């Protein structure tokens, strides 16, 4: 399985079948990644999501990408690091849910953000460590997944996520280009 970490715009990863949305409970337009994904996908995404809200921790929702260049959006929900004691476990469940969604929907390539590092206020190193732990088990959770790309907003985050993945013995590939 190919693992990449890039600095780029998550809504412009046209070579990925699915994009992972760090969703809010109501599956609505929000700030950060959720806002970017909903804005790029257009209003049909929010309308499609409404019957499935609220999204429980540890679960996922797969929707069409609508106006996104990706066929699918995998919605998962993290928790506020500052407001919930079990936020690290919830983050781990969210990333595992994204992999289960890929497996159950025969998705072979997905791009995910640095889940939890925005509005949920996770320390980047902790989010990266949890992400690396789950990705290290990806071949058993989603055996046909061929590529996971972690798309981050800065070189600092790229370095943090790359170091966490490499610490788990994962080889990190450099993407050919990072669409912005």
Walk me through this protein's architecture.
The chain has a single domain (2-173), classed as Leucine Aminopeptidase, subunit E, domain 1. The chain has six helices and seven strands, in the order ββααββαβααβαβ. It has helices at residues 32-41, 43-49, 87-104, 124-135, 138-141, 155-167; strands at 2-7, 18-23, 60-64, 72-77, 109-112, 147-152, 172-173. A hairpin with a 7-residue loop joins strand 3 and strand 4. The two termini are 24 Å apart.
Distinctive features:
180 residues; globular; Leucine Aminopeptidase, subunit E, domain 1; seven-stranded mixed beta sheet; 6 helices; alpha/beta
Helix segment tally: 6
What is the CATH first-level class name?
A: Alpha Beta
Helix percentage range? 25-40%
CATH fold assignment: Leucine Aminopeptidase, subunit E, domain 1
What order do the strands of the largest sheet run in, or round the barrel if closed?
3-4-2-5-6-1-7
The CATH architecture can be named as 3-Layer(aba) Sandwich
Helix/strand order, N-terminal first? EEHHEEHEHHEHE
Domain count: the total is: 1
CATH superfamily: Leucine Aminopeptidase, subunit E, domain 1
Please state roughly what percent of the residues sit in beta strands, choosing from under 5%, 5-15%, 15-25%, 25-35%, 35-45% or over 45%: 15-25%
Low-confidence stretches: none
- Let me know the average pLDDT: 95
Shape: globular
Structural class: alpha/beta
**Rg, nearest Å:** 15 Å
In terms of topology, how is this protein built?
Elements: E1 2-7, E2 18-23, H1 32-41, H2 43-49, E3 60-64, E4 72-77, H3 87-104, E5 109-112, H4 124-135, H5 138-141, E6 147-152, H6 155-167, E7 172-173
Helix pairs in contact: 3-4, 4-6
